[in-house]
Amino acid sequence: SGYHSCKIRDKDVPIEFEHAALEEHFLKMKEMKAFNDWCREMDEELVVSKVVVQSIDLFGPRIGFIKFKAEAKTKDGKAVPGIVFMRGGAVAMLIVITCKETKKQYSLLTVQPRVPVGRASLYELPAGMLDSSGDFVGVAAKELEEETGLKVQKKDLIDLTEKAFGGSCPGVYPSAGGCDEFLRIFLYRTKMEPEEISGLQDKCTGVLEEGEVIKLKVVPLDDLWKTCPDVKALSALCLYENFLARREIPSD
Description:
single chain; Nucleoside Triphosphate Pyrophosphohydrolase; 8-stranded mixed beta sheet; 7 helices; Nudix hydrolase domain-containing protein
């Protein structure tokens, strides 16, 4: 074993590994976009003196998840919690479907098992992890097709988070006390015949090779806030309704 380090705001910070077996993944860790972004974008008011890697989960040849403890203080020397579950950003899509016949609006959700919260069937917005390309819109369109079967053009997706926050932050942080994940939330609106909407109900989708077992649920848009205990859905709804109220998005 040798000395390992990373650059955080141009300062050389040592990296230690709790288990020797983790050390072999050091180079993969240095290539991980989420880790590089974290190092590069650290606020200057925070001072990190050491990173201790505790566990790593591989997704094929690359690191998917990494857990580490950063020894961190504020500029005036006060220690702050630094346990990090790193997974990088994700995209989520709020789908608003208007029925051509009745003009009633619906949203399309995914239902799938979520072991971390002990739920066999959790209602959520369609979503997926970002890749290293940084192509938020492209990943959103790809995940939308994989999880719902809907093929969309990039131009048909509205980036609600970018519209709200501009460049001040990459997205919505669902669990900033322990995880770096941010959510880039997109809006996709379309119109369908009643039979098209019915055809989406309980449709099975997902990428089996990635272990996805997904069923679709169509719910009235007015009921989304009380149907779906998903931070992605509630955040998307908040942004969408505020933009509508301010007429910054046409009411369709």
